[in-house]
Each structure stands twice: as structure tokens, then as C-alpha cells.
Amino acid sequence: MNSGGAKNLRLAVCPSYHAAVELIGRRWNGVILQALLAGTTRFTELRSGIPGITDTMLTQRLRELEDAGVVFREVANARPVEIRYGLTEVGLELSPILEAIASWSNHWIDARESEAGAEQTGEGRNVG
């Protein structure tokens, strides 16, 4: 156990780090950012690629990410008007972080779900 206690904890909880984790970890934001890593896309394509998200929630989260400088919104002069979203330079810098989270989740979350499934079917039990 670390003997530094509260002093080290205060140093470890950086306000900038906390703000970044809150932004990325807010419901739907990580999925939106991951989807936008594939490139600039229209709102409807983005919505159809994220099962379960409503138009209202997607709009709200995109505005939040845009205000944070992570996502940009461009309006094309077409008929009908076409609105596209993409990652800014700041947003693109999240790529290795989002890829690391995806890798971690593929390893650990998938493993936990496999274990849970085995326990429910009795395959994971040691009997005897």
C-alpha cells in the first residue's frame, strides 16, 4: 500500500485528466467518436451506425463534442441540405486512445462475458 495517501491522490487526480475522461466516458460519446474515426459522415449514417441512440441524444452529444473542439460540423450547399460531422485535429489525436480502449474491451470485456456465460450454463464450475 502506498504511504503517500491523500497527497499522492490529489496529484493523481488532475482536473484536465478528469475532464477528458468525463468527455470520452459520457454515455454515447465514446461510440460516436469511434464511429467518426472512420471519417466524415452524415448525421443519418452516424445514427444508423449506433443502435439505440435517439436523434435528440445524438444531436446533444454532437453539440457537446463540437463545443469541446473534438468534432466539427459542416453544412454542404446541396439540395437537400447535407450536414456532415467529422473529427477535428484534436479529435483525431484521440485515435490511439480509442483504439487502446477497443483493444482492452475486446480482451477483458469479451473474456468476462465468456466467463459469465460459462457460469450460467455450468461449464465454468468445478464440480467434485
Short description:
With 128 residues, this protein is mostly helical. It has a single domain (16-121), classed as Arc Repressor Mutant, subunit A, CATH 1.10.10.
Structural summary, described in words:
This is Winged helix-turn-helix transcriptional regulator. Pfam families: HxlR. By secondary structure, the chain is mainly alpha-helical. The protein has one domain: Arc Repressor Mutant, subunit A, CATH 1.10.10.10. 59% of the residues lie in helices and 11% in strands. A three-stranded antiparallel beta sheet has the order 1-3-2. The longest helix has 27 residues, at 95-121. The chain is globular. 10% of the residues are buried.
Which SSEs are present, and which pair or pack?
Layout: H1 6-12, H2 15-25, H3 29-36, E1 41-42, H4 43-48, H5 55-67, E2 71-76, E3 82-87, H6 89-92, H7 95-121
Antiparallel strand pairs: 1-3, 2-3
Feature tags:
128 residues; mainly alpha; Arc Repressor Mutant, subunit A; 3-stranded antiparallel β-sheet; 11% strand
What general outline do the C-alpha atoms trace? globular
Unreliable stretches covering 5 or more consecutive residues: none
**First-residue to last-residue Cα separation:** 37 Å
CATH class: Mainly Alpha
Helix tally? Answer: 7
Q: How do the SSEs run, as a string of H and E?
A: HHHEHHEEHH
CATH homologous superfamily (4th level) name:
Winged helix-like DNA-binding domain superfamily/Winged helix DNA-binding domain
**What structural class do the secondary elements suggest?**
mainly alpha
For the largest beta sheet, what order do the strands appear in spatially? 1-3-2
CATH topology: Arc Repressor Mutant, subunit A
| Whole-number tally of structural domains | 1
Quick check: average pLDDT?
85
Helix residue percentage: 55-70%
Number of strands: 3
CATH architecture: Orthogonal Bundle
Content of β-strand = 5-15%
